[in-house]
Structure formats: C-alpha cells, structure tokens
Amino acid sequence: MQGNRGPQQNHGPNRPGEQKKSGGMNTNGQQPEPCEPTNPNEALTLDLQSFRKPGEKTFTQRSRLFVGNLPTGMSEEELEKLFAKYGKASEIFINKDRGFGFIRLETRIIAEIARAELDDTPFRGRPIRVRFATHGAALTVKNLPEFVSNELLEEAFAVFGQIERAVVIVDDRGRPTGKGIVEYTSKPAARKALDKCGDGAYLLTSFPRPIIVEPMDQYDEDEGLPEKLINKNQQYHKEREQPPRFAQPGSFEYEYAMRWKALMEMEKQQYEMVDRNMKEAQEKLEAEMEAARHEHQVMLMRQDLLRRQEELRRMEELHSQEVQKRKLVEQRQEEERRRREEEMRMRNEEMMKRQQEGFRGNFPENREQDVRMHMGGHGMPMNRNSLGSNSGSAGAAGLNAENSPMMAGSGNNNNNMPGGGQGGFPRGLPGAGEYGPNKQRRF
Fold this sequence. Notes:
With 443 residues, this protein is an alpha+beta fold. 42% of the residues lie in helices and 11% in strands. The chain has a domain at 61-132: RRM (RNA recognition motif) domain (Alpha-Beta Plaits), CATH 3.30.70.330. The chain has helices spanning 76-82, 108-118, 150-157, 187-197, 234-239, 252-377, 393-410, and strands spanning 64-68, 91-95, 100-104, 122-123, 126-127, 129-132, 138-142, 163-170, 176-184, 212-215. The strands form three sheets. It has a four-stranded antiparallel β-sheet, covered by helices on one side. The longest helix is centred in the last third of the chain and has 126 residues, at 252-377. The termini are far apart. The model is unreliable at 1-43, 383-426 and 428-435 (pLDDT under 50).
C-alpha cells in the first residue's frame, strides 16, 4: 500500500481556489495556461498555521521521522530541501554510510502529512522509506484508576522531568481502559520515572492498587507489513507453494486443527480460571488492606495520644520544677530577710547596751562636777583639809562606800576638777576619826 505521492493531494495553498494565478480566471471559467513559478517550492509550501492546535507543543519526539533507503552520499542540506515544503526542521541527522537519517518537523500532523506524501517516493532512482522514529523516552502506564485524566497523569509524572505528552487511553465509547502513555523529552527522566514507580505509586487515595510503569513498545500499526517488505528468500517460496486454504473435514489438517482447537480451549479455560483466582485474590487483598488501613489509623491515633500524654506529663514536670524553684527562692529570700532583721535587732541591742553603759559610767563624774561647781559658786574652799574632824567612824565608812564607785568611774577626769583634787568629792561629811585636829587625809 503506497502513500500519496507528490502534489497530487497537497494540503497546502495549492488547493482549488488557493493556487496563485497570473492574470486570473477566464470569463468562461476555464483555467488559464500555467506559468512557471519563480520558486519551484513556492506552490508546495504548506500553510503551517492551519495545522497547529491551540496549546500544542512543537518539535517533539512524536514529530520525528525516520528516513531510510537514502542514496549514498546524500547530505543534510539535500534532506532538508526534500522536506522544505513542510516547514523549518529543528533536527537533521544522516548516516551516509548506512543510508538513513532523522528529521524533526514542527507538529505531529505535519509529520504525518510528510510521511504520507513522501513514503515510497522515488528519489534519485531509489524509493525512500519514511516512518515515525522510535520514541526512546515513552512509558506505558497500566492499572490506572477510573478518575485519572490527562492533566492529572501529567501532573503526577512531571516531577521526574519535562513531559511532551501524557494521555489516558480510552475505548471507542470514551471509557478509560486503565492504560496511559507518558512521553518525556529526555531518556534520563524516563529512567528516573521507571526506577521511582517500580517501588509502587498511587495516584488516587481511594484506589488501593499501585500503578505499573513500563517502557512503551511502539508498533507501526498504520501500515503493518506489506508484501513488498517481506524478505523473499528460499523459505518464503517454500511456504508460498500453496495458496491460503481452509481444512476440510476428514483431512489430516482438519484432525490436527481440532486438536489444536481443544488445546486453545483448555488454555482459554486456564486463563479464565487464573483471572478468577486473581480477582478473588485482589478482592481479598483489598479487604485486608482496608482493615490494615483502619488498624494503621488507630495505631497512629494511639501514638498521637501517647505523644500528647507524654508532652502533658513533661509540661507538668516542668511546671512542678518551676514551682519548686520559686518556693526555694522565696524561702531563701525569707531566710535572708529574717537574718537581716536579726542582725538589725542585735545591732540595735548592742547600741542600746553601749549607750546604757556609757551613761552609767559618766553619771558619778558629772555629779561630782556639779557639786564642785555649786560649792565654788558659794565661796566654799575646795581643800578637803578644812573639813571638820568631828565625823564619826560611820561617816568614814559611808564615805568609803560611796567614794569607791565614784573613784572607779572617774578615771583621770578628776584632775580637771577645780581645786586640783585627785579623787572624787564625797557625798557625806567626813568622820571624826578620819579628820581630826591632828590628822590630814592623803589624796
């Protein structure tokens, strides 16, 4: 099956009503004589704007073409010129020794048009082969939940690298099949996604089963395997000796066909049994997982409760320690206050005691001075020898009794007394025995 060749079905501006004219249409509606264009590829250039979808990514791996069976010695400039009709190419590579190359166009639709028009087109006497290049960074995602969309799938896998395309495969009725395709811009991102998702990845909370990520197997299902691509060797001619046929009942082929059919039926039954067992095992695992999830939540709640209790106990201990510290500080302050009060009281007592002792020691001296000053004011002699001697022994004893404390407390201050006396002045009169006419008292 050959593709459309050349400009017979061109999708560009050379369609009816869009072709450039020199002089316009005739009055009878006939086409004017064609004229040579100034540029040979001008009439073959596509209107690229009409093949772009809103928000579509350009120059992706899906728009990369494999070009095979190229003539020997073909250059990259020649390959670019061959695809110049389909816009500017972003990647051109040619292996001149093996005769193949790669070219990346702007969009997938333009690449499909280029493939349909140039595939099996003669170029320098050789029909070239145009196919979509294998996407080395594409992944197949299986076991997808029902409520996963293209946007959610792209959001989930975008953490591993930049994504070109992420789609969820649906059936003819638009229902999800549980499979999807994720295409990255680089192979390291795809390998990272494979390694990470191999440990199990969940896209939805209520979906207990993990998704399965595998490298995508790419098939050329558009054209398949035409007759011209089969290698016609000796084995090919041996297998093609007879045309396709159906076995007739009673023949050798029919007998073994029935046996093969029975074996296939057994295989089908085994697969159905395995599917039932797998579904039962999945349901059992889901039930166990749900029960384990509840237990896990209860365990987490218990751990949280124990953690809070431990925090509460720790806070109570800290509070009690703080209260004890405050009590100790208050006790120390109270003891310090009591000690200061006791020291103050003892200091006051000591001062009062000293004041009392000083008052008692100075009292006789002050009295003697007052008496002397009084006697000096009346003109009385200060010599004690002039005192009478008619005092008795009782007066002398009284004089000695009263004079002893005054002498003890007077000290050396008696030298300053008027009259130059050395001792204290007695209160009473001198006795007769002490002061007689023939006796004098020594001072």
